[in-house]
Amino acid sequence: MDVVLILTILVVIFALAFDFINGFHDTANAIATSVSTRALSPRVAVMLAAVMNFIGALTFTGVAKTISKDIVDPFTLENGSLVILAALLSAIAWNLITWYFGIPSSSSHALIGSIAGAAISAAGFGILNYDGFLKILQALLISPFLALAVGFLMMSLFKVLFKKNTLYKTNKGFRIFQIGTAALQSFTHGTNDAQKAMGIMTMALIAAELQSTDEIQTWVRVSAALAMGLGTSIGGYKIIKTVGGKIMKIRPVNGAAADLSSALIIFGATTIHLPVSTTHVISSAIMGVGSAQRVKGVKWGVARKIVLTWVITLPICALLAGIFFQILNLFF
To answer: Domain map of the chain by residue range?
Structure first.
């Protein structure tokens, strides 16, 4: 069998594995608040998230096209299949390490940093599409700050609207409302995160000259959506614990405000075809909500550790991917 075809098959397998891992790694963030407030049991929340992620993943393709062509041009990339395989191995390794330690790291940062690092290792810094790459980095950088601000404003609005209600009555109502916000949160997660694996597979198909456009094929969309849905059904309870309780004590009204805020930011990014870190956005929205409630109620020490992981993920994954490429290049 042709070496390029073997590498393409390996890329598809590892891309689906990345999506599967992303399902239990990142999707935990989408349901963390509803589980921590007991609006939903972990089992029901995970199954709801799996279904809504699957639906969301099938609905849009704009982010997938951005991933497939805006970091590097797959039509001009030599050893493209090898570059993409190295990037996937790096992103998967980092996701598993951070999942093991219960750290809500960004799969988006891991994947984008890995693609850039593997491509640079293969062809030098000139291979990067700097306009597209910088646009993606800007989205990754700005979106957490937007989520923090929107979370603060959303919680402030809720405080004004429901100030005459007792705390018990407010939380009881919002516990029911959180079922809807958890579903919305999971849907928006699927519209953005699942498309990253679709983009990777499309890059591999173009590099192998198995397709000549950046259109996302139907089998690519369905397989990526299924992989994320299955991964979500396994759940990521370690990360639920970190996001849902260690940043701040979350009540139903806080959880609903955080869910709505982060869903708005993620879906907004999806509509303009930009990948964002759902982990960053959700965690930042919780911090914004906590700040509106009581600044001292946010455990900023935990938040600092999360931010540190966000900062180091992209460069570490770029370095890892470069090393993986050099190792794979010895064998292929």
So the answer is: 3-331
